[in-house]
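BUG: 3D viewer hangs when loading the predicted structure for this chain

Environment: internal workstation, default settings.
Expected: structure renders.
Actual: progress bar stalls at 90%.

Input used:
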Amino acid sequence: MRKLELTLTSKIEQDGEEEIQQSNYLATMKSGRKKFIQYEERLDQDTTDVVLVIGDQSVRMNRSGQMNVKLLFEPGHYYETFYHYTSYKIPIKIYTHDVLIKQRENESVIEIKYDLYERDEIISNHHILFQLKEQS
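Structure tokens produced before the viewer hung:
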């Protein structure tokens, strides 16, 4: 298992406004047929465990915390799922425009562009960039 420094940059466009956030995390990666990257997001008192499963041209993201969701990003495909909260769930759908995976010796970049739908209506456009570097 390798230890990584992960920089996550997310850009969300919604209702004509754009929000950009950048956060840094410590992550671990297991390699095999697929790569598994795991890290923990903290916001105030809430903790969310995130697992990325990296395939050749796809990324699966599992988020477990206050809100649970499983997302599959495959270019040119829709994916339907739910945001699961403690007492209710919200159906959502995503359409993935692009997944770019670049891997070098000690660093990787994963870029995902997708639209988020609720009830067949686009509610936001997302651009996520994961920059991963092995810890020295």
